[in-house]
Amino acid sequence: MNSIVRNIYMSDTSNEGAAVAAEHFTAAMAQAATGVSIVTTDGKGGRFGMTVSAIASVSAEPPLVLACLNRRSPMVEAVGENRIFCVNLLCTAHRTLSDKFSGRPHSGDPYGFDDELWGREVTGAPVLHGALAQFDCTLESAHDAGSHRIIIGRVHHAASTENAPLVYNAREYQQLTQLQDFDL
Ligand SMILES: Cc1cc2nc3c(=O)[nH]c(=O)nc-3n(C[C@H](O)[C@H](O)[C@H](O)COP(=O)(O)O)c2cc1C
Predict the structure, then answer these.
(1) Helix, strand, coil tally for the chain in percent (to 5)
(2) Ligand 1: which residue has its CA nearest to atom 14?
(3) What is the pLDDT of residues 125-158, one digit of tens each?
(4) What's the gap in Å between 57 CA and the centre of ligand 1?
(5) Phi then psi dihedrals of residue 9, to 5 deg
(6) Ligand 1 atom 17: the closest Cα is on which residue?
(7) How far apart are CA 174 and CA 23, in angstroms?
(8) Positive or negative torsion for Cα 130, 160, 94, 120
């Protein structure tokens, strides 16, 4: 294992308000390997989808998930009004869709929903056909934290496939390979 420490960033903790600079925080956080989801909502507040890596399981009883959304996104207000959202975990086949819902489409409209790809389950939030996993939620609570809003949803429908997960690490899409015993 390569354990060479390449970058160390520290703030002056003698100043209570000091924190590590945003670019140092994001450079270190970019090393986290995460799944990639498209979080969607629909209703009076409008239909929106956004590519999000910051999702997590909160609780199994009751089933709760969270997602962290940048408050600059119009989707944040829409989720508050619609009171529903769906976390659609992506497969490797969905990398162009991930780009589309992060505002970087290879063709066509950014954030555009292609009706063939999307359906509905319980709440009415857009659910991606063939997603790695789907968590269709009603909004349980929301909490502002820094630049982002943490939305917590109660899951009313969950489903999954065994396709290959889309992974994001070091600002690139990746795929998983299983470690073999001889890698020990
Ligand atoms: C792989 C990936 C993961 C992302 N994860 C998040 C996230 O967890 N939360 C978030 O608010 N934005 C996240 N974004 C960024 C949003 O998708 C993007 O900022 C948003 O769609 C608005 O982009 P625009 O203002 O450039 O159009 C992610 C983008 C990518 C490509």
Answers:
(1) 15, 40, 45
(2) 52
(3) 999 999 999 999 999 999 999 999 999 999 999 9
(4) 19
(5) -125, 130
(6) 102
(7) 22
(8) positive
Tell me which residue has its CA closest to atom 22 in ligand 1: 102
Measured CA to CA, the distance from residue 68 to residue 144 in angstroms comes to 9
Q: What is the pLDDT of residues 49-104, one digit of tens each?
A: 999 999 999 999 999 999 999 999 999 999 999 999 999 999 999 999 999 999 99
Domains of the chain: 33-172 (2.30.110.10)
* Residue written as token pair 């819902």: 101
* Measured distance CA(119)–CA(4) in Å, rounded: 47
Token readout for 91 is 């497969």
**Residue 62 has which token pair?**
């009751």
Tokens of 92: 């490797």
